[in-house]
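Task: sequence design from structure.
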């Protein structure tokens, strides 16, 4: 593993480790309460809120760290896989969508695209996400060329996790049915967090963000 890959991967691992430790401590406290007691209800709610907090917090941190790593490498867009290159062209693509005249569109496209592809890529960051619905996480992972299998498989449970957390945050007297239900939420969140962590570590180690060839054509970007 390169020094850059090791440096950024270690940051992600450290963040995941402290979050999992905190979730384990809270879960232990829950299991020390009497089933059906007011204390259990409180700890069920507290645990669910913190599971979501760590799911959102870790995913945003990990994605931001991966972006830090990519920007540290200062790779030209022409040397990146097209999903990554195109996701860093947000401003240019937004300008293109405003053009309705066909001639003007292709003039701008052909005259400016090459210069954009030869610039180091810069990316939008997930800092302002307030509700990390699984569809939104899939969108971010896809845009960065990362796997989404576990997130998509756990979509229904993650949707419920986000929805229930919002109800708690808005002061509603939500009750989690039992410890088994809470564990299902924790399992879904943990699978998603690990998929993000492993996907980023593999991408940095295997350099899967890079194109296998650097021929400057739109066609080659689409197929490499």
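Answer:
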């Amino acid at each position: 593993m390169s020094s850059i890959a090791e440096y950024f991967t270690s940051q992600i691992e450290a963040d995941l480790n402290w979050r999992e430790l905190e979730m384990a401590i809270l879960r232990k406290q829950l299991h020390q309460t009497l089933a059906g007691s007011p204390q259990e209800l409180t700890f069920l709610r507290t645990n669910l809120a913190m599971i979501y907090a760590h799911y959102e917090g870790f995913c945003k941190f990990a994605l931001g760290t991966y972006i830090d790593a990519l920007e540290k490498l200062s790779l030209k867009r022409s040397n990146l896989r097209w999903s990554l290159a195109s996701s860093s062209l947000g401003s240019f693509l937004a300008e293109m969508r405003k053009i309705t005249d066909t001639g003007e569109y292709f003039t701008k496209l052909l005259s400016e695209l090459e210069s954009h592809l030869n610039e180091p890529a810069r990316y939008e960051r997930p800092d302002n996400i307030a509700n990390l619905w699984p569809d939104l996480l899939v969108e971010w992972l896809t845009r960065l060329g990362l796997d989404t299998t576990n997130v998509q498989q756990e979509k229904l449970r993650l949707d419920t996790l986000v929805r229930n957390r919002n109800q708690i945050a808005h002061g509603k007297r939500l009750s989690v049915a039992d410890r088994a239900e809470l564990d299902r939420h924790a399992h879904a969140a943990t699978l998603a967090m690990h998929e993000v962590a492993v996907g980023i570590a593999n991408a940095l180690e295997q350099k899967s963000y890079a194109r296998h060839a650097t021929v400057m054509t739109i066609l080659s970007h689409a197929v490499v």
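The chain has one domain: 3-223.
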